[in-house]
Design brief:
630 residues, mainly beta, Methylamine Dehydrogenase, Chain H, 5-stranded mixed beta sheet, 4-stranded antiparallel beta sheet, 3 helices, 43 strands, elongated
């Protein structure tokens, strides 16, 4: 195990950002009890495999929000792109099996779009967007019998729905009716995409009276007055545009309190489900976060900052009956690259991740540099559940493709436990504690580049997880060393435990990393910037590296064309000392793929012979330090 290291404490909007241990440890004053339990991936199921018979396998089909049957063995997911819901048999966590899909066109119209799904007893509740336009939003709740996949009832929701949640006692379902804004519309006196845009959103409560859906009824909780004016409670809370609340995501605690995020309005509303009364509303506030990457320039540079940015929370989850957690994805004004714990009694921040969520991405090689200038890791999904007496929070990064797992047994002091790599665009996080499982549904699907939407399953157990196999340690400032796109490896000629790797064209500036392979996971301990012969940082498409016994390195640099392929010799400081181009006749026969690796040896005459991408032979007499060709 790597040594324990803490992320520095930062101040954010008057609250304290708690330090996070990089490796999970017992709480102060507690004794560690046996081997730590961790989640490990058991299977990933690409949902295009579950497509209807005859459908082109390259057709886009996604998995967004998911729910599970009460026995934990049938998973249901929404596919808004293909206008359907899908069913998976997850009886075996290592071998999920497609059970087919149900098209919403069979229930309504070909353009009907499922936005969320939940399960109550033997029924699947699907909320469906059937809006004709942004100004004429509408939706329905379809109640599907799981065993037969027949619709037994449909309820008119009166607006465009987003998310649905079920109370633990199964007395209530709650639905956020967002009536989302048109990002291309310009309200009077505002800017393009601005609020307010009528009609206003609200919340629907479904009273689940008994086991028969025919007895279920709706109650509406308005978030504005009958004539469209702002509610005093939302005005007092500092909601940005209280005449257009746009409720986004919901969660219900054990006391049947509903928490609703108003993402675009940077607010949270609490509603008592039995009475339908708004009990509280508060702003999610702003955050100032330092030492993050804020510029899209092909370089992981943790020296940027954001100041007084609205959190704009998306997903929300109760940790217990008092504390709430939000994933602060942001929308159009904000996004603070982390997540926050609020005290529902006061509306104040009890804990905030600060830069630690983004640092996790960097440390594990998952940082998406293309999003640095926008919302960074974009934490979107969040779920909380208890497994074997330990309460966990799961926070998903939409853009860096991971889920971070925290022990939230003490809600005001989350402890980071591990990170789970996901497929692209993790959207839905579904804890299944009864089976020790976590399901993650990922929505990005592009068959042309081999990226397919999927449902992945992770099992809680005592074994060592397969991920990560490598992480980075701190740099001189204490921040994690930024890394990624490692496609080459070489051993140090004098220290067998020390390895070297190098970045490729994914980054604007080439770096060589020293890796301590004695640790598990292996640890990047140092980064060396590669420079040209003038000492300036340079970006090579380095596909191979060889650590020379004489000191320094050889790099195999792949070119966009044949002549651009070359071997580059660096000194120990990373400065370019020699460039060896391909022979013209060899270069002429290459396309854009070329050098992929490099190795070298010294023959009896003291000649250094360097080979890359094939058979090598010396081409001339060479003193030590010069090179032959491929």
């Amino acid at each position: 195990m790597t040594a324990k290291r803490s992320i520095p404490v930062l101040a954010v909007a008057g609250a304290t950002i708690a330090a996070l241990a990089i490796t999970g440890t017992a709480h102060a004053g507690q004794k560690a009890a046996g081997p730590a339990k961790t989640f490990d991936r058991t299977a990933t199921y690409p949902v295009f495999l579950n497509r209807p018979a005859g459908e082109d396998p390259t057709t886009e089909t996604v998995a967004e929000i998911s729910a599970v049957s009460e026995d934990g063995r049938t998973l249901i997911y929404t596919d808004a792109t293909a206008r359907r819901i899908g069913f998976l048999d997850i009886s075996r966590a290592d071998q999920p099996r497609g059970l087919g899909t149900l098209s919403l066109a069979q229930l309504g119209d070909a353009e009907d779009e499922p936005t969320s799904v939940a399960v109550v007893g033997r029924y699947v509740l699907v909320v469906v967007n059937i809006s004709a336009s942004y100004t004429d939003p509408s939706g329905r709740l379809d109640v599907i019998e799981l065993a037969t996949r027949k619709r037994v009832r449909s309820l008119d929701l009166g607006g465009q729905p987003d998310s649905i949640a079920i109370s633990a006692d199964r007395r209530y379902a709650a639905i956020a009716i967002e009536n989302e804004r048109d990002e291309d519309a310009t309200p009077p006196g505002g800017k393009k995409g601005d609020l307010p845009q009528a009609p206003a959103g609200f919340v629907q409560i479904v009273d689940l009276d008994g086991n028969s859906p025919q007895r279920w009824s709706l109650r509406t909780v308005p978030l504005t007055t009958a004539d469209g004016r702002a509610l005093p409670a939302l005005v007092a809370a500092g909601i940005i545009e209280p005449t257009d609340p746009e409720p986004e995501y919901i969660s219900i605690n054990g006391r049947n309190q509903l928490a609703v995020t108003l993402q675009e309005n940077n607010g949270i509303v609490l509603i008592d489900l039995p009475t339908g009364r708004i009990t509280s509303a508060f702003s999610a506030g702003t955050a100032s976060v330092d030492r993050i990457d804020t510029v899209k320039d092909g370089v992981i540079n943790l020296t940027g900052s954001i100041t007084d940015v609205p959190r704009e929370p998306d997903a929300i989850a109760w940790i217990d009956d008092r504390y709430l957690a939000t994933a602060n994805e942001g929308d159009w004004r904000g996004g603070t690259r982390g997540w926050t714990v609020f005290d529902s009694r006061t509306g104040r921040v009890s804990w905030d991740a600060g830069n630690s969520f983004e640092w996790l991405a960097v440390r594990h090689g998952l940082h998406n540099e293309d999003r640095a200038g926008k919302k960074g890791t974009e934490p979107e999904g969040l779920a909380v559940a208890e497994y074997g007496g330990t309460r966990y929070a799961f926070v998903g990064s939409e853009r860096s493709n991971f889920v971070a797992v925290y022990d939230v047994s003490k809600p005001t002091s989350p402890v980071f436990k591990q990170i789970l790599a996901t497929t692209n665009g993790p959207e839905g996080l579904l804890p299944i504690p009864s089976r020790g499982l976590l399901a993650v549904s990922s929505e990005t699907d592009d068959a042309s580049v081999g990226v397919r939407a999927s449902v992945s399953l992770y099992q809680l157990g005592n074994g060592t997880p397969g991920f990560p196999s490598i992480v980075s340690g701190p740099d001189a400032t204490g921040a994690p060393i930024g890394w990624g796109a490692l496609g080459a490896l070489s051993a140090d000629p004098k220290q067998p435990h020390l390895l070297y790797s190098v970045t490729d064209a994914a980054y604007a500036k080439t770096q060589i990393f020293a890796i301590d392979a004695r640790k598990s996971p292996a640890v990047i301990t140092k980064a060396l910037s590669v420079r040209d012969d003038r000492g300036e940082p340079v970006g090579y498409d380095a596909e191979g590296i060889f650590a020379r016994p004489q000191g320094g390195f050889w790099l195999a640099v792949e070119g966009a064309t044949g002549p651009e392929n070359k071997l580059v010799r660096l000194d120990a400081a990373g400065v370019t000392r020699q460039v060896v181009p391909l022979p013209a006749d060899v270069a002429a026969g290459l396309g854009k793929q070329g050098f992929e690796g490099v190795a070298a040896t010294t023959d009896k005459r003291g000649r250094e012979i360097v080979c890359s991408s094939g058979r090598c032979r010396p081409t001339r007499r060479a003193s030590p330090g010069s090179a032959g060709t491929t």
